[in-house]
Write a structure and sequence with these properties.
By secondary structure, the protein is mainly α. It contains 19 helices and no strands. Helix 7 packs antiparallel against helix 9, helix 14 runs parallel beside helix 17 and helix 17 packs antiparallel against helix 18. The N and C termini lie far apart (about 55 Å). The mean pLDDT is about 95. It binds copper (I) ion (CU1). Copper (I) ion binds next to helix 9.
């Protein structure tokens, strides 16, 4: 059953982890550089030309390539299994995968050759080779195609099941892909109207303010594109893995719909210090950002309550005793539970970032990478690793190679990331240490002895994370090719609702939520984009490879 879907998922996820291996291994070198151990001259032997070249590969491969390929693969799996039917157009999904791979290969050429050292946000006036922008655009188009294919499949299912409520796992997956369609309008416009013609020499210059605004139109909901697949797992699968049930399934559905409505119209919280955006719009996006914290709190409450059901079913007593009864010997559960714990802290630092005035203290400081390593680097990536601990064995038809190695990987990620992000948060908040920078060679960093303990903490964390990365890859490679064949097949874990109150009908209707989403996008961005277009100035030259 689902042979084609499983093969597609295996390719998506295999490509995701392959490219992640390059990006993730470059991370620890940055922390060592800050601590005075500059290995970038040695990295030239493998083609990494500079700190910034390595930093760009780290960001693009981890945050853009790994996430996108993992998500499209994971959702091909979840939608097929949750709806209980194969893809409506199987060959079309092969074509979508090929489109994504072609885009990735086009992106990879300038990226690996130091022709696109513009970091993963590719802020103009930093200017990359046109192939970088063209390739990334094609990857996004391929991801749209996957999303359309999933919707076609759902449409066929709906026709056969007109009265049935869409299963939660399929619904969460589909809402994520629809949100992604809306979210990527911004970066599509940035690429097609500004970056691509500009890098081809067809425009006299670019307008960085407009480009950045279009980027963050996509750049903020991008974090929900990363996160919602994790929520699909935390709501739909993790309670089952913990022996529990979903505390409130209707509440889970409600949270997904709220994310559809609130993910996009808040991107300007990344632009509080941009001079070209009127203050009132910054305030509106700030308020809406606090609104999107609401479904995150619902999720925290609902997921923890669902796990508590499992802990109590296993005999856990008292306020906290149930926690110890959770399946801490299962690496898939443990990685995702740890990811959730660190992610909660990342949510709190996210509230700090979202606060208009407090943001000024941490903007462009090391606090920000501290925050994003707790969110995308842990809440998301660590959860994807946890999912891989059951999904890769399932797809390979082999047992997880070594459960203890996987548990050691989870513990080292927890400890390494706690140290590294703590160091970065303090460096940014207390000392204003800038983000993105090669601190080891920065003249202003010389003699800053107060920074030293936290820079060392960061480097120790980075080194522990390196150990974790090695443990992860040894296990995944061994599981995929060398481990023992499965004797009993692995099924996708599907959590049942705790009580059998069905979700109300308004939680299974697309129209009101889509209308709300589009209305808020128009309200929050329409006037800003019109304002920026009325002042369009294609005057900025491009800067490339200054390092
Ligand atoms: Cu954001």
């Amino acid at each position: 059953m689902y042979k084609h879907e499983h093969r597609l998922t295996a390719w998506h996820i295999g490509i995701a982890f392959t490219f992640l291996s390059i990006g993730i291994l470059l991370g620890p070198f940055q922390t060592w550089e800050h601590a005075g151990l500059n290995l970038y001259p040695q990295l030239k032997a493998v083609g990494i030309q500079s700190y910034y070249h390595g930093l760009t590969l780290h960001g693009v491969l981890n945050a853009l390539v790994f996430t996108t390929f993992f998500i499209t693969g994971f959702f091909t799996f979840t939608v097929a299994h949750s709806l209980g039917r194969p893809m409506r157009f199987p060959r079309y999904h092969t074509v979508s995968l090929i489109v994504m791979v072609v885009g990735l290969l086009i992106t990879a050429v300038p990226l690996l050759l130091n022709g696109a050292t513009v970091l993963y946000t590719f802020y103009p006036p930093l200017k990359a080779d046109p192939l970088f922008y063209i390739g990334l655009t094609i990857v996004v188009i391929g991801s749209w195609m996957v999303g359309w294919g999933l919707l076609f499949t759902w449409g066929a299912w709906r026709k056969d099941n007109p009265k049935t409520q869409t299963p939660l796992i399929a619904l969460g997956s589909l809402i994520t892909m629809v949100m992604w369609q809306i979210a990527t309008i911004g970066v599509a416009l940035e690429m097609l109207l500004l970056n691509i013609p500009w890098s081809l020499g067809l425009l006299p210059g670019t307008d960085p303010q407009l480009a950045r605004t279009l980027f963050w139109f996509t750049g903020h909901p991008l974090v929900y594109f990363w996160l919602l697949p994790v929520y699909v797992s935390w709501y739909g699968m993790l309670p089952k893995q913990a022996g529990g049930k979903i505390f409130s399934e209707p509440l889970a559905r409600f949270a997904f719909w709220l994310f559809l409505v609130l993910s996009v119209p808040i991107g300007i919280h990344h632009q509080y210090v941009d001079p070209g955006i009127p203050a009132g719009w910054k305030a509106l996006h700030s308020i809406l950002t606090f609104a999107v914290f609401f479904p995150s709190l619902l999720t925290l409450f609902n997921v923890v309550a669902s796990l508590e059901i499992g802990g109590r079913a296993a005999g856990g007593k008292g306020w906290f005793g149930w926690i110890f009864k959770l399946p801490w010997g299962d690496p898939s559960f443990t990685a995702q539970a740890f990811a959730g714990m660190l992610f909660a802290l990342g949510g709190i630092s996210g509230l700090t970032n979202a606060s208009y005035n407090i943001n000024l203290a941490v903007h462009n400081t090391a606090w920000i990478p501290g925050h994003l390593h707790l969110t995308v680097g842990t809440g998301v990536a660590f959860s994807f690793m946890g999912i891989a601990y059951w999904l890769v064995p399932k797809l390979a038809g082999r047992e997880l190679w070594n459960r203890k190695v996987a548990l050691a990987q989870a513990w080292t990620w927890l400890i390494g990331m706690a140290l590294m992000s703590n160091g970065l948060h303090i460096l940014g908040l207390r000392y204003g240490v800038p983000r993105r920078s090669a601190l080891g060679i920065a003249p202003y960093a010389a003699g800053m002895t107060e920074w030293t303990p936290f820079i060392i903490e960061t480097a120790v964390g980075g080194t522990i994370l390196l150990i974790s990365i090695v443990l992860l890859y040894v296990n995944l490679v061994a599981t995929a090719w060398f481990s023992r064949r499965l004797t009993t097949p692995i099924e996708m874990p599907v959590a049942e609702p705790w009580d059998d109150h069905p979700a109300p009908a308004w939680l299974d209707q697309w129209r009101p939520w889509l209308a709300g989403s589009l209305a808020l996008v128009l309200l929050s961005y329409g006037p800003v984009v019109v304002y920026l277009l009325s002042r369009l100035a294609l005057t900025s030259p491009g800067f490339s490879n200054l390092w």
